[in-house]
Amino acid sequence: MKQYVILVFTSSHAIGIEQKLKKMGVPCKLCAIPRNLSSDCGICVRFDETNLETVEALVKTLSFDIQEIIATNY
Amino acid sequence: MTIVYMDNAATTWPKPPEVLAAMTRTMEEAGGNAGRGGHRLAVAAGEILYQVRDTVAVFFGCSDPFRVTFTANATESINLILKGYLKPGDHVLVSPLEHNAVMRPLQFLAQQNIQWSVLPSAKDGRIDTTLIEPMIRQNTRLFVICHESNVNGVIQPIHEISKIAHSFHIPLLADCSQSAGSVPIDIDSDGIDFLVFTGHKSLFGPVGTGGIVWGSQANIEQITPLKQGGTGSVSDRYDQPDFLPDKFESGTLNIVGLSGLKAGIDWINRNQMNQLSSEKDVLLQKFLDEIRAIKRVQVFCAEKKENQGGVFSLIIERLDNGFAAQWLDEEKGILSRVGLHCAPLAHRFLHTFPAGTIRFAVSPFTTCEDVEICIDAIKMLAEKKETAHFL
Q: CB A43 to CB B236 under 8 A?
């Protein structure tokens, strides 16, 4: 199944998104950021394509900006 | 000799055992560096940090955990706001009971032509809200209000003050060092723009924890960070991040201490703050009622019971405060705090400068027996025959 990652500007935001998704019952995982996607040394949130719409809806409600949601083989 | 700890305004003691357990657990199970790296111990630390943020936010009625900024203490928080927000030529209004955590940065900023004035108040230092408006100048940019005095325990009418401040589009900084965890606070309905707290007093966390909660209307873009440095984010740039929480949180946070702070707040929530406060109020009123009746004892507290926090001060006529406090410690095991309490402005206002007062502060761990021991000891001191320690 296709995988996606949410790239954020800081690990705190990744953890904030992960906690919200978990509360919503959406399976997700915190992972080190793939080096081909960002030079940051932090973490991102990985989820599968079945939850893409839910994640996109959640992102619109956040108090902070994310970088982007990217499809990945990671 | 049993210790009767009455210095809870300096730092609460004891802490709930859960606080110590949480800190040990964090060291053992989440020993990585929050926000730095993606291995399991770093992520575990990051998750704890998020939970602390969330707990603090909810506790103060803030809906966004990222509007909580952690610092080492209230002093750092106040410095961050005063030095990051005020500009040369600005004017600040303060209460007459401010701590040096406010007055020293303001005195420092006076070099940049930043001026301050003291708001008019009743005799106990509670601000008279009917007299605020004439004090506001064209260049008044900030109200700084000590929510609960660390000298006489007076609680300020924050909500009424903020209503007036906001009608002039001036934000309000509430120094909640004493009140947080003791007096219910809801950041937005109380009209607080910058809520400053320390973790180690009535929130029962360890020393080295504190922060700022930003009100929903607070314009964070206007504030320059006090420090710049590593945040674990946007690491390819030399510029400081401009987003929360990283903008104000350079350097490794005290995750162990903060996990203890969360455990302290959880303990308050489990025991219901209203219940804890009302039990504390009963003890404090008994304490105040009895010592006010002792001849030669002058008590400094709120004029009205409903404005009284858990702190008050006293002096015993013609008896040296230092001697009295030492006698209380050595002879009775009572630990009080003598002096100016880092609040010379308050002591000048109360006419207790420079000798200061002897301060007592109760906590939910204070027992009726503790209070009775204190009352008896103060009676003995007040009845002492004149010695070399008399003034």
A: no
